[in-house]
Write a structure and sequence with these properties.
single chain; about 350 residues; alpha+beta; 3-stranded mixed sheet; 9 helices; 8 strands
């Protein structure tokens, strides 16, 4: 009887491994991805812009941003480097950042951007994947060969799967930072994968610390105006009242969206203050919980620290109607809300 029970248990365990897929969240300390770039920026005399761009950039590694937001952030990093005598270290670390794996909420590979970077220094670069990511299936259940599973400019899947120019041997360990593994961005075609499309060198606006990108810009084209890469649009919130606060924002043609944006950001921050990691939520919605960025995975919020000195907060967009959820400093979040004319601080 004991032997029969043991066999049954073993078979059940085997079925759980090889039957229905087991998904796990693969994350990292995102603030570590830009530490070396920010240090190089400070050494080059970039001042306050260094931290602003660093914060905006590392938050694109979360699961919520669209497939081109990381590349856009790397472009902003290179843009700032070019204003500082084209600082070589800043450009090098930006190139490595462009290849850092992104968080995966379901242990699936993360889609690649399908547009060219603004700066030629980023041509042919795309993110590595973490070793725990499924190499044959991408977020959304898309099989290799489908939309977004082959980097822009390439005609065949990445080989080896999960590799990138800076780490041509394959994916990197879960949660690790590519910049800690190599100082060589792999520019010049160190893998069998090549990007044959040239990027433009147009002048662009350097981003400020608004990080989570627009849910409406998460398509594979990612052709947003560089000047609009700073503000971010609000993802759908778990609480219906939060969603209502965001959708109630008037159109950008109303002439008064800035104040409404500030007030809606306050409402969201007030609602976030009532949430815990055990709060009920809707899959893939985002929030802030106890200062950390939170994403709903499997009906439960999973939090990701923003990094030392940073908090997660809802912010008003600057150039259009809407709000964003981002990692930033408390002072910056408060200043952005005050600038809209809204009164009462972060929560109203």
């Amino acid at each position: 009887m004991q032997f029969t029970t043991l066999v049954a248990f073993t078979l059940a365990a085997t079925a759980s491994v090889y039957g229905a897929p087991i998904h796990k969240r693969i994350a990292q300390v995102i603030s570590d991805s830009t530490t070396k770039w920010e240090a190089a920026c400070n050494a080059a005399g970039g001042g306050a812009q260094c931290n602003q761009v660093a914060v905006a950039s590392f938050s694109t590694l979360l699961a919520a941003p669209g497939p081109c937001e990381q590349q856009n952030a790397a472009d902003n990093m290179v843009d700032l480097a070019k204003t500082l005598s084209s600082n070589a270290d800043m450009i090098k670390f930006a190139q490595i950042f462009a290849q850092q794996p992104r968080n995966s909420p379901t242990s699936l590979s993360v889609p690649y951007c399908q547009s060219a970077p603004r700066n030629a220094e980023l041509n042919g670069l795309f993110q590595c994947q973490f070793q725990g990511d499924n190499p044959t299936t991408f977020v959304g259940g898309i099989a290799v060969g489908g939309n977004g599973t082959i980097p822009f400019g390439m005609s065949a899947p990445v080989n080896p799967a999960g590799s990138c120019p800076a780490n041509p041997s394959g994916p990197i360990a879960d949660g690790s930072q590519l910049v800690d593994l190599t100082q060589n961005p792999g520019v010049g075609g160190t893998t069998t994968s090549k990007n044959t499309t040239s990027g433009s060198n147009s002048t662009s606006t350097v981003a400020t610390p608004s990080a989570i990108p627009s849910s409406s810009s998460s398509n594979s084209g990612c052709g947003e105006d560089p000047a609009e890469s700073t503000p971010t649009a609000s993802p759908t919130m778990a609480a219906s009242s939060a969603a209502a606060a965001s959708s109630a924002t008037p159109s950008s043609t109303s002439g008064n969206f800035k104040l409404a944006n500030g007030q809606n950001a306050q409402k969201l921050n007030a609602q976030f203050a009532t949430l815990t990691t055990t709060s009920l939520c809707t899959e893939d919605t985002n929030a802030c919980i106890n200062g950390a960025f939170a994403q709903c995975v499997g009906g439960t919020y999973v939090t990701q620290s923003c990094g030392s000195g940073l908090i997660c907060a809802a912010l008003p967009l600057v150039n259009s109607a809407g709000t964003s959820i981002t990692c930033t400093t408390n002072a910056d979040a408060l200043a952005r809300i005050v600038a809209t004319g809204a009164q009462g601080g972060l929560t109203g």
